[in-house]
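The methods section describes the discrete structure representation at length, but only in general terms. An entry of this sort, consisting of the sequence and the corresponding backbone structure tokens, reads as follows.
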Amino acid sequence: MLVKLQDPTLLSKSVDIISELVTEARIKMNEFGMSITAMDPANVSMVFFKLPRSAFSVYEGGTDVLGVNLENLKKVLRRCGSKSTLVLEKNEDNVLNISIEDKIKRNFSMSLIEVESEDKNMPSLEFSSKVILNSSDFIDSIEDCLIVSDACSFSVKEGKFIIESRSNLDSARSEFSGDEAEIHAEDCKSRYSLEYLQKFVKASKLTEKTTLNFASDHPLRLDVKSANMEISFLLAPRVEVED
């Protein structure tokens, strides 16, 4: 297996985000490109990442699975500059050779590991509500909620989408109408952990739009997508009595 990325920025930033949820992962390489599917140790969230074959300038080899320590891979990918070319090559000794080509060529070797993980796919769920909004607005709303509480609610009421958090005395609320967001939804409400959402919004920074799918007391699916990258998260709801 040998692949080359002329712009490794999206891979580097995506691995950075995924490493906050899981420490080890199986990177799958097949005819469609590179993908990672993983569930966090608490079984609260799930992440799916895809870098299509078209994102690579060179893509050689068939189906392969690379078991990696994401923290170690993240450190190497951070060594890439904005104009670097990244080359990944798996050799027969179960070692991943990583080359960063810039003014000079730098080489790293990383031992591949056995990752105990079931082969999972992102489950197919039905949602009653879909909201597409500017990523910058979504990020601001989550950061507002973090000031107040450790959880927030997503709700749709009378055609408006609302992100809100409350504590005993304080609250934060962002309200979106059809002018600020694309809302295809019925009235519903669900509550989610801000600890996880704070990590997810780092992916929102990579694209202009963020898509949210949810329903009452139902998991949230958050999607960000560009021409050369796709990241999706699933997050279990926090079902509890609000203050």
Summary: The chain has a mean pLDDT of 94.
